[in-house]
Write a structure and sequence with these properties.
- With 410 residues, the chain is α/β, with parallel strands linked by helices.
- The protein has two domains: 183 residues, 3-Layer(bba) Sandwich (FAD/NAD(P)-binding domain); 151 residues, 3-Layer(bba) Sandwich (FAD/NAD(P)-binding domain).
- The protein contains eleven helices and 21 strands.
- Strands 1, 2, 5, 6, 7, 8 and 19 form a seven-stranded mixed β-sheet that branches.
- Strand 1, helix 2 and strand 2 form a beta-alpha-beta unit.
- Flavin-adenine dinucleotide binds next to helix 2, helix 3, helix 10 and strand 20.
């Protein structure tokens, strides 16, 4: 079968047609668009509803009062590579047999090749009462641009009592972010001299503090240092903002029971899943995530469909760091397929999470599909807390993101 047969010139009802169509103008979408343009691919279009692009890793530092939220945001038109057509719209369905996507207001768009990078969905409604609780000054979340500054306000108004931090079932984006803010908060309370009169509780749905032992060990020492109360297997189900209580389903010894924890302040992380239009559509795998080969990032059923980032079912840590390694692999494979060859580039599952354990220290967790540490700087012991990585998160990584990744250079 030739590519002409695969991609008929005219599809009924289609207004626009593009050689490569990208869904999502986040880390993955912009990175791929930039690399395609650098490789000389013309006729690239991107569908993205938001007028603003966010560098979300900074939201942890926004919640800790280290940076202003505004430095994490840039106008979408400023980060969109030159020559890429932007449909400011939302994809509502994909028909990979017809090579089309349907949008909310631009009609159906046809493609020869599709790259899906719509990120994941924050399911705020998955916890009863959470949305109402987020209207109160005692509840916040670093998982949203508008709510991250509230974490800092809440921490600064706290005068002692119970500071509760939650973490939902995996997978979520940046699995370390729910605990990072707990450590930063504990450090802040220590500096203010109220850690001893406070109880910092981290209630997590996970069975351990971190999936990779080499990084779990230093984190356990951090927990001890702050005398934190960590509850494993605790899934947040309900928040009552009137009496300030959080209710969990807790698993222990094969039994599930209901546990209620009163809080003075609460940092909540919502459950997360693939976007609804992905879950409902044909490109999803059994858990709703986009079903791609975990090494080539090509869809398992449609050879002209690729995906990267948080929306896929690849079992790596869902991070911008993973996107940085995925984008060049995806683009190399996409160019091969466009030229009629087999995809040969290989993604090894690299993901990274700079775990801020205090205002000065970081444990830089880098690992791949094998669960083995894969340090970028092999001569540095990244499995212990390091002061020199503080600058990395605040300055080096944002610069790498804006100037390197988004421009298709790193
Ligand atoms: P996103 O960057 O989220 O982009 C998805 C884009 O798709 C969005 O612009 C969205 O508007 C668009 N979209 C959604 N639905 C549609 C639709 N229907 N049609 C068209 N477009 C759509 N990563 C790290 O590497 N290190 C960290 O320290 C780190 N810390 C984090 C801390 C927090 C608090 C958070 C929230 C995230 C953190 N991350 C971190 C994770 C990182 O931000 C994500 O993994 C990364 O942004 C994923 O890129 P993506 O392109 O898949 O999704």
């Amino acid at each position: 079968m030739t590519s002409k047969d695969l991609f008929p010139a005219h599809v009924e009802g289609v207004v626009h047609r593009h050689r490569v169509l990208i869904i999502g103008g986040g880390a993955g979408g912009i990175c791929v668009a930039a690399r395609l343009r650098r490789a000389g691919v013309h006729d690239v279009a991107l569908v993205e509803p938001s007028p603003t692009h966010y560098y979300q890793p900074l939201w942890t530092l926004v919640g800790a009062g280290v940076v202003e939220r505004e430095i994490s945001a840039r106008p979408m038109k400023k980060v969109l590579p030159r020559g890429v057509r932007w449909f400011r719209d939302r994809v509502v369905a994909i028909d990979p047999d017809a090579n089309t996507v349907s949008t909310e207001s631009s009609g159906d768009l046809a493609y020869d090749f599709l790259v899906a990078a719509p990120g994941l969905q924050l399911d705020w409604k998955g916890v009863e009462g959470l949305e109402a609780a987020l209207e109160t000054p005692w509840v916040a979340s670093n998982y949203h641009y508008d709510l991250a500054p509230r974490t800092w306000q809440m921490l600064e108004c706290f005068r002692g009592g119970t500071a509760l931090f939650t973490c939902p079932h995996m997978p979520i984006k940046c699995a370390g972010a729910p605990q990072k803010i707990a450590y930063l908060a504990a450090d802040r309370l220590r500096r203010r001299g109220i850690l001893d009169s406070s109880k910092v509780v981290f209630a997590t749905a996970t069975p351990s503090i971190f999936g990779v032992d080499e990084f779990a060990r230093p984190l356990e020492a951090v927990i001890e240092r702050y005398a934190m109360d960590v509850r494993y297997g605790h899934v947040l189900k309900r928040v009552d903002p009137v009496v300030r209580e959080a209710t969990f389903e807790a698993e222990s010894g094969g039994e599930t029971k209901t546990v209620t924890i009163p809080y003075d302040i609460l940092h909540a992380v919502p459950p997360q899943s693939a976007p609804d239009f992905v879950k409902r559509g044909p490109i999803a795998g059994p858990q709703g995530w986009i079903d791609v080969d975990k090494h080539t990032l090509q869809h398992t059923r449609w050879s002209n469909v690729f995906a990267l980032g948080d929306a896929t079912n690849t079992p790596n840590a869902k991070t911008a760091a993973a996107v940085r390694k995925q984008a060049p692999v995806l683009v190399r494979n996409l160019l091969s397929v466009m030229a009629g060859r087999e995809p040969a580039a290989f993604y090894n599952g690299y993901g990274a999470c700079p775990l801020t354990t205090s205002y000065r220290q970081i444990v830089l967790a880098e690992f791949d599909y094998s669960g083995q540490p894969t340090p970028t700087f092999p001569f540095i012991d990244t499995t212990r807390e390091r002061v020199d990585f503080g600058l990395l998160k605040r300055r080096v990584l944002p610069a790498l993101y804006w100037q390197g990744m988004l421009k298709g250079r790193a």
